[in-house]
Design a protein that fits this description.
- The complex is a heterodimer of chains A (155) and B (410).
- With 155 residues, chain A is α+β, with helices and mostly antiparallel strands.
- Chain A is built from 5 helices and 3 strands; from the N terminus they run ααβββααα.
- Chain B is built from 14 helices and 17 strands.
- A 7-stranded mixed beta sheet of chain B has the order 4-10-9-8-7-5-6, sandwiched between helices.
- Chain B is globular and about 70 Å long.
- The chains are: A alpha+beta (155), B alpha/beta (410).
- The interface between A and B is medium-sized, with 21 and 20 residues.
Chain lengths: 155, 410
């Protein structure tokens, strides 16, 4: 069995202890989606402000709410830091790349977008603990939900 | 006669398996139990020598298989002191047994203006079927609240039962281990004119069960939590109620006659056993209750109470305020289910660290999300004990928790 140091890298524990972009955004104008891991009860809500800049949709702000284990929370925190300021197209490419690292096939890469995982590569040890892949991907699936099928706002 | 608990442990082949050079410390029996060689060998022998359809064919082999199958039913009936084996309906598990009662009895007896009383201790299996039927038939669900230490708060029981047609409750919480006073609850239900439905899925594997002493109307339980195979469970019900209830799942075996314009049902229990049942698993279920009987349920309960006391004392003495173990402290009032919070470390991470030392516990909501919300958590880690566990398992859990302290830096 791989050692726990493969899973609990220092940068992961740092994001767990000091999560970035915690909180909520006013809906609307923000959009949001809720994700659940029915196995363990982890819950996450992703809030996104999407604004047009120079003709491109950009994630201008992101907030994360909810509770979960160190892997789901640190993955959400690192994701929030990574997507803030990126175009929606870049974010979609990043999600594909991240899920690819989690050994989840998401089809063809976008050939015109080049994104780097950066700090997110610290999470690659999760693949050696297959039970935890769902923890690491919860925030990312919820982010896609917030883009594609946000919870309808009341107004 | 004292029980040789080391010999009991030796009956379970999987507990001799090693992962990374060390034995498995199995503390997840509240989830599902391990199987003794007596059950494994009985199922194996039955498939090798006696497997055939039951209740259908006239040749000798089929007759033998049917006798073995009905022998298992008789063994299960005896195990819970049911008045008659005909009152044992084999189901897929306790969940299906509860769904059967809700859909069949509830479907025929509940409507607008009616009420069913449940408790905050319940597993989703004793919540969701009622919610599904209530959405269709429009009756009220009421809830018995809890005391601070996780027991049922019975102060307003009579008021809650007033006008209720059924009271459905667990005999032992799968999260807190709490063992409510079943006979007293049944009596209160009957005095209010309600039937009493007992989810005994956690109770039957660990205690002497006497459905007649309880005086209950329905009792549901599962084989896989009591040393038997998965895929089979049982519903015990009063014969008069079972006779009145409409069929649940239609198909072969459950009919007396079928014509183009309708059908008539077979007598109980066949009426509720449509289709070919899990034959081998039922044989294994029978072997499991015989195995447990050979040790004695009173002795198993005593063993688990001593071990639960040891676990509560060991973990509390070592970790003090850093560990919170939910549920009653008095082991007379609880089973060997220890849900705990440890140093604000998420249960998933606790389970991960424990797994590094081969300690198997459950982390999650335990299919009891309303209870989790009451506890103010979205998950707990849960260690659950059974007859094959001993103090060394508790010590292994206690030692392995230190690893979580190291990693998460407290």
């Amino acid at each position: 069995m791989p050692g726990l140091e493969d899973l609990y890298r220092e940068i992961i524990l740092d994001h767990y202890r000091t999560p970035r972009n915690r909180g909520e955004l006013a809906v609307p104008p923000a959009r949001h989606a809720e994700g659940h891991n029915p196995l363990c009860g982890d819950e996450i809500t992703v809030f996104l402000d999407v604004a047009e800049q120079n003709g491109v949709d950009v994630i201008s702000d992101v907030k994360i709410a909810g509770q979960g284990c160190s892997i789901s929370q640190s993955s959400a925190s690192m994701m929030s830091a990574a997507v803030k300021g990126k175009s929606v197209r870049e974010v979609r490419a990043l999600v594909r790349k991240f899920k690819g690292m989690m050994s989840i096939d998401t089809g063809e890469d976008d050939p015109e977008v080049d994104v780097l995982l950066g700090d997110l590569e610290a999470l690659q040890g999760v693949v050696k603990f297959p039970v935890r892949i769902k923890c690491a991907t919860l925030a990312w699936n919820t982010l896609i939900e917030a883009l594609d099928n946000p919870v309808p706002s009341d107004t | 006669m004292t029980v040789d608990w080391a010999a009991v442990r030796d009956d379970f082949p999987i507990l001799r398996r090693e992962i990374d050079g060390a034995p498995i410390i199995y503390l997840d029996s509240g989830n599902t139990s391990q199987k003794p060689r007596q059950v494994i060998e009985t199922m194996n022998e039955f498939m090798r020598t006696s497997y055939a359809p039951i209740n259908r064919s006239a040749y000798r082999l089929a007759g033998e298989a049917t006798d073995r199958f009905e022998g298992a039913r008789a063994a299960v009936a005896r195990f819970i002191n049911a008045p008659s084996a005909d009152e044992i309906v084999f189901t897929k598990n306790a969940t299906e047994a509860l769904n059967l009662v809700v859909a069949s009895w509830g479907g025929a007896n509940l409507g607008p203006g009616d009420a069913v009383l449940l408790t905050h201790l319940e597993h989703h299996a004793n919540i969701v079927p009622w919610q599904m039927l209530a959405a269709k038939q429009g009756f009220e669900l009421r809830w018995v609240p809890l005391t601070a230490d996780g027991q049922l708060d019975l102060a307003n029981l009579d008021r809650l039962l007033a006008g209720a047609k059924a009271f459905a409750f667990t005999a032992m919480s799968n999260v807190l281990g709490t063992i409510p006073p079943v006979a007293r609850l049944v009596q209160a239900a009957h005095q209010a004119g309600a039937i009493a439905i007992v989810d005994a899925c956690q109770y039957v594997p660990h205690n002497v069960t006497d459905v007649q002493a309880w005086n209950a109307d329905f009792v549901a339980f599962s084989s896989h939590k009591m040393c038997g195979p998965s895929g089979v469970g049982a519903l015990w019900g009063r014969i008069d109620l079972l006779n009145e209830m409409p069929a649940y799942i239609g198909g072969g075996n459950m009919i007396a006659d079928v014509r183009l314009d309708g059908f008539t049902t077979a007598p109980v229990p066949a009426k509720f056993e449509a289709g070919t049942p899990p034959i081998v698993e039922v044989i294994g279920f029978g072997a499991a209750v015989e195995y447990l009987e050979s040790i004695g349920m009173a002795k198993i309960r005593q063993h688990e109470m001593e071990l639960t006391r040891y676990a509560l004392d060991t973990l509390t003495a070592r970790y003090g305020d850093a560990i919170t173990i939910h549920g009653p402290d008095n082991v007379e009032l609880r089973g060997g289910v220890l849900s705990f919070a440890f140093r604000d470390i998420h249960p998933h991470d606790i389970s991960q660290v424990l797994d590094q030392r081969n300690v198997c516990v459950r982390a999650g909501h335990h299919c009891a999300k309303p209870l989790m919300r009451l506890l103010g958590v979205n998950a707990t880690a849960r260690a659950s004990l059974y007859l094959y566990n001993d103090r060394s398992d508790v010590d292994a859990l206690s030692n392995a928790l230190d690893g979580a302290t190291d990693i998460f830096g407290f």
